[in-house]
Amino acid sequence: MSDRYPIPAGEHRAQQEISRSRFIATIAPAATVEDAQAFIARMRAEFPDATHNCWAFVVGPPGSTGRVGMSDDGEPHGTAGRPMLTVLLHSGVGDVAAVVTRYYGGTKLGTGGLVRAYGGAVQHALESMPRAERVEWIDCVLTIGYGDVTVVQQLIAGHEGRVAEESYAADVTYRVTLPDARRDAFAAAVLDATRGQALVD
């Protein structure tokens, strides 16, 4: 399971009109099921007069089905939440929740039309949605000799790390924050560059 993947950069909204019904798709980042539920509640509060507020969410890496949810919110069973969830699962985006708000315009779409409308509304919003990257960060503490400072600073930068704290005494100590995915390669590179003299915690 990757600890780095695309997520929504923030809340994003797109609207479509289909057979006089207005479909408003709002997408938001959701790192936990509680985040998703809070977002859904917020959308219901924002659009209390809507005919339906259907929703779906995927918590975790893109395509993972361990923590998902969906609701048709009164639309015929399987015509809203399921197609929305399917689009989210195939979007290549993780930690994502979507609410599609519908204002009924007087023309029935039928089950196939509803599936296309709800899935399409999410797809339409995803196409214009700004993305960010979820990265799992860790801290590690390095103790090195003064002669190794320059090479170790280059290694920190090369592994997307940043020095959070530093102290200079008999040895040099750095507390470094870096992506978890780079932890092992970084530790190996530091030990190699310092001929095994560094302490990496």
UniProtKB/TrEMBL annotation:
Gene3D superfamilies: 3.30.70.240, Impact, N-terminal domain
GO biological process: regulation of translational initiation
GO cellular component: cytoplasm
Domain UPF0029: residue ranges: 142-197
Domain Impact N-terminal: 20-126
Stored Pfam families: DUF1949, Impact_N
InterPro entries: EFG_III/V, Impact, Impact_N, Impact_N_sf, Impact_YigZ-like, Ribosomal_Su5_D2-typ_SF, UPF0029_Impact_C, UPF0029_Impact_CS
Homology family: Belongs to the IMPACT family.
The protein's name in its UniProt record: IMPACT family member YigZ
Gene source species: Roseisolibacter agri
